[in-house]
Amino acid sequence: MAEKWWIAIVSGILALVAIYGVIVLLLVKLLWAWTIPDLFPGAVDQGLIAGEISWYAALKVAIFVAVLAGLAGARRGRES
Fold first, then answer.
1. Secondary structure tally for the chain: helices H, strands E
2. How would you label 59-77 residue by residue, b for 16+ Cβ within 10 Å and e otherwise?
3. What's the pTM value of the predicted model, to 2 decimals?
4. pLDDT tens digits for 40-72?
5. CA–CA separation, 57 vs 61, rounded Å?
6. What pLDDT is attached to residue 3?
7. Residue 12 within any structural domain of the chain
8. Where are the alpha helices (DSSP H) in 1-80?
9. Residue-range definition of the domain harbouring residue 69
C-alpha cells in the first residue's frame, strides 16, 4: 500500500514539472514573438532575426536564460 502512495506522489510531481516546462516554453515563444519584432523591426523584415521561434529554439533560449540566472545567483552569493 505504501508503494502505491509513493508512485502517485512521484507521478504527480513529474506531471507538475512537465506542465511547468510547457508553460515556460509557451511564455518564451510568446514573449519572443511579442518583443523581438518591435525591438528589431528592420532586422526581422530583412530576415536577419526570426520573428517567431520553434519550440526547440524556445527550449534553448530558456536553458540559456536559466544558466545565466544561475551564474548571476552564484556570483551574488559569493559576494555577500
1. 3, 0
2. bebbeeeeeeeeeeeeeee
3. 0.72
4. 999 999 999 999 999 999 999 999 998 998 888
5. 6
6. 73
7. no
8. 2-39, 41-46, 55-79
9. 25-80
